[in-house]
Design goal:
30% strand, globular, alpha+beta, 12 strands
């Protein structure tokens, strides 16, 4: 089996923060990140597809979206699960599990829309929105190393609110494998 190996010789792209790997007969480029305590592995899920990315826990979600698009480009993908892969990172929407211990409860968008809340003193303050710390980084949003995020692509004809979120789309196309699926596929082989 073709285990991924780093190319022996340095290519022109190695100095730009990317490294070339060989996998079987093909080659791909991937971000070069050295291990550190701040580096996390996050799982990005859509339909039956899972993509693992190494991210810094304080890296912005905008930057992570660009890394995800780079992963698609590195594999030469133009579409995923019948959907055209966008060219703009802002056309990717992330979601987190409603209950990380029971994925079957569904997913909710990671970006919290801006709204006002009243505190104990009766004064109102604005929380959420694009610039909220909860929307900015994996650590700020409560994710942990090995955490899962669903992702989907914005629809061209979608109605957007002031934060650029689709007002009518709460559906996340994530299919989690089950024990029965695994046992059933082995008995049919």
């Amino acid at each position: 089996m073709g285990e991924a190996q780093e190319s022996a010789g340095k290519s022109a792209g190695d100095s730009d923060g990317w490294k070339t790997i060989s996998e079987g007969q093909g080659k791909a480029r991937m971000p070069s990140k050295d291990p550190s305590p701040k580096l996390w592995t996050l799982r990005f899920k859509q339909h039956k597809t899972t993509i693992l990315l190494y991210v810094d826990q304080t890296q912005s979600f905008s930057s992570i979206k660009a890394d995800l698009l780079d992963a698609f480009k590195g594999r030469g993908l133009k579409e995923l699960n019948g959907q055209k892969i966008p060219t703009n990172p802002e056309d990717i929407i992330f979601g987190i599990p409603v209950d990380k211990n029971d994925i079957g409860k569904g997913w909710v968008g990671i970006e919290i829309p801006a709204h006002e809340v009243e505190d104990d003193t009766g004064s109102k303050k604005k929380i959420g929105g694009k610039k909220s710390v909860l929307n900015a980084t994996p650590a700020g949003s409560g994710l942990k190393d090995g955490g899962m995020l669903a992702f989907k692509f914005k629809k061209e004809d979608a109605m957007m609110d002031e934060d650029g979120l689709d007002m009518n789309d709460n559906d996340w196309d994530v299919i989690m494998p089950s024990y029965e699926d695994e046992v059933g596929s082995q008995s049919q082989a």
